[in-house]
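== Sequence entry ==
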Amino acid sequence: SKEEGGDGLMVKLSKVNGLKKIEDEAERREMITPALREALTKQGYKLIGSHSGVKLCRWTKSMLRGRGGCYKHTFYGIESHRCMETTPSLACANKCVFCWRHNTNPVGTEWRWKMDPAEKILEDALEKHQTMIRQFRGVPGVKPERYEEGLAVKHCALSLVGEPIMYPEINTFIRLLHTHHISSFLVTNAQFPEEIRNLVPVTQLYVSVDASTKDSLKKIDRPLFKDFWSRFLDSLRALGEKRQRTVYRLTLVKAWNVEEMQAYSELISLGQPDFIEVK
């Protein structure tokens, strides 16, 4: 078990002899290894500190040119050219079969890396996002008024990669976004029910519902947690307790999880989401 020391050090309680071992923050390794840095950079990610990232979405580029935005624009009025896609945790607790980031994103069931402060992550994310937007200045087809608007971020999609609620300072990060008048859509993979309960209100809270039975969830998400199914169900219950806008995001993959409609309806009654999105 772990306790937080008063001086900010992590205290580990040894199961063997009960002695407390201090683990200094400096001894913790960084989440982003050199190999991971190279792989993610090739994929277009701008890395922030030791565990965060930001990336320019294709819909942001589309809307800068005066074309259509993503489903968030169609459904909720979010302006894609003013949306920043980022994550404060590149790590995840699943190895989903449909994830396109295999062998690049780190996995884990708890935070065990060095940690950057939320203020610094947001500051760097905004700076790197704006730098990417500036590369579109004067590009043929880009609308000057859209370009100017794009420099002022109004929305943050915390759904880029990984599991944002694994980041221990996620509540601070969300509060900072809202202080900057930036709305927040956060996506979680339904493996951290207590973190969902402890989460401060976001503009819209998503839970990924990738399967409707224990067997199919294990095959599709390939979770690291042994008690993944009870965590999954409890995460849906935790979502249902939230007094804010909530969404189930159903990732339906042909021949994997489309045939279980009755089971899906039972899960929907469990979490009572405001919206259901089928991906």
About this structure: The chain has ten helices and eleven strands. The two ends are 38 Å apart (CA to CA). The mean pLDDT is 86.
